[in-house]
Amino acid sequence: MDKMNKNHINRRNFLKILGISTASTTATLCGCRPKTETSDGATTAANVPTGGMTLRTTPTTGDKVSLLGYGCMRWPTLPAPEGDGNVIDQDAVNLLIDYAIAHGINYFDTSPVYVQGWSEKSTGIALKRHPRNSFFIATKMSNMHDYTREASLAMYRQSMVDLQVDYFDYYLLHSVGGGDGIPLLRARFFDNGILDFLLEERKAGRIRNLGFSYHGDITVFDYLLSLHDTIKWDFVQIQLNYLDWHHAKEINTRNTNAEYLYGELEKRGIPATIMEPLLGGRLSDVPNHIVARLKQRRPNDSVASWAFRFAGSHPHVLSVLSGMVYMEHLQDNIRTFSPLQPLTEEEFDFLEKTADLMMQYPTIPCNDCKYCMPCPYGLDIPAILLHYNKCVNEGHLIEDGNDENYHKARRAFLIGYDRSVPKLRQASHCIGCNQCSPSCPQSIDIPKELHVIDEYVEQLKLGDGLQ
After folding, report:
1. Can you give the pLDDT at residue 32?
2. Helix 288-297 × helix 345-358 angle, to 10°
3. Which end of the chain, N or C, is less surrounded by CB atoms within 10 Å?
4. What is the DSSP letter of 168?
5. What pLDDT score was predicted for residue 218?
6. How far apart are CA 100 and CA 94, in angstroms?
């Protein structure tokens, strides 16, 4: 592996996720603050059903899997005792997982690299308090940076230690399709014998279901499916939502429309687990006219519920993952899936038209995964991109200085920018080193987008609008 650039900052040191907190109180948990409404007004605290979760069956093992799965890529955090950075709030994680299991969620998806390497340990602590047969654990071979056989085997074994299990229910080759396509795929899993090892682990019962998670290069996806007759993939994780069902390539030229991905799996009888059903939160924080459009149809349902119903309405979907850091989001999603009301054909058409309308707004496909971080020059890349997207959705991105709403939009963008991103971490400090882009699962040309945003900001400061 290449030596790191001297300016590179270690990811663990960047966020300083130093450990796992065992705070004595849950009254002020950042992830579980008591609320009765989601951000878009849907009541969730009352009448959250129990016993009604929709289940899907895994063909190979017969598992009855909750259609709503818990994505453990983000967990609530608290300030570190030293006052520098954050730690995972274990009490909050315990509370969320207890609530999820009590309401029928039994599928938990994590990885050795989530939450700066602490997700598996935190998730394992919470799940260990429940009977092993009451939940299914999915984790991954996340050997993106060191794919030697020794490092990969060590990662596999450490996952068992951190999750406190002696077998994995679902195990994935993580994030295939990125980087150098098939050559990188083969280096990570084939040439070092890791795939053969995992197949032997499946035979031995230490992996009950083996699959892969797909990002980006369609030749890799097609190549792995061409091996299905010999490998027999038990499941595959794909990105699927109503915006990238037909518009994935317009959102990001490297992505593949979800309709194709799902269709290829359906033809082979391979169940799909779904990531990004909200497209990084963008399908819950939609432009105001889209909110009105959705609320007109189902006024008591959250905006997010439309995206979850879309993903869950496809019959070969095994579980739809949601990273639920806040209790109100967990409650709202439980209501959507307990039980799921599948979309009608008319509602599918309605969402397709909704997606067409949304494509008129030029948001950047950032899902706040933070894989681009840390920036060696201190930029808060996700915060910059997300503020830009938020202003697009709220109508605060106006190019014409003569527009009657221009001054209000200009003020909202600039004030919000300074509040969201400290000045020393704003786009103006990007030098275009491009250390960030190779790590982006969405293949965003990050320096290009940052320079566009910075140029827009500078013209707003001059008060002249965009030319």
Report:
1. 43
2. 170
3. C
4. B
5. 94
6. 10
Work out whether strand 64-66 and strand 136-141 pair parallel, antiparallel, or are unpaired: unpaired
What residue ranges of the chain have pLDDT lower than 70?
A: 1-19, 21-46, 253, 361-362, 395, 398-403, 463-467
- The angle subtended at Cα 174 by Cα 173 and Cα 180, nearest 5°, is 100
Do the beta carbons of residue 169 and residue 136 sit within 8 Å? yes
Query: What pLDDT, on a 0 to 100 scale, did the predictor assign at position 398?
Result: 66
Helix (H) or strand (E) holding 458: helix 446-462
DSSP string, 252-276: -TT---HHHHHHHHHHHT--EEEE-
What residues contact residue 462 under an 8 Å CB cut-off, 6+ apart?
A: none
In 3D space, the residue among 200, 209, 197, 204 whose CA is nearest the CA of residue 149 turns out to be 197
Exposed/middle/buried for 281, CB within 10 Å: 0-12, 13-18, 19+? middle
Q: Which residue has the tokens 């060590």?
A: 154
Q: What is the pLDDT of residues 198-254, one digit of tens each?
A: 999 999 999 999 999 999 889 999 999 999 999 999 999 999 999 999 988 877 767
Q: CA 188 to CA 149: how far, in whole Å?
A: 9
Q: Is 181 left (phi over 0), alpha (psi -120 to 50) or beta?
A: left
Asked if 87 contacts 21 with a C-beta cutoff of 8 angstroms, the reply is: yes
Burial degree of 437 (CB within 10 A; 0-12, 13-18, 19+):
middle
As a whole number of angstroms, the distance between CA 205 and CA 357 comes to: 48
User: How crowded is residue 146: how many other Cβ atoms within 10 Å of its Cβ?
Assistant: 12
Q: Is the dihedral of CA 392, 302, 261, 366 positive or negative?
A: positive
Query: C-alpha angle 28/30/35, rounded to 5°?
Result: 75
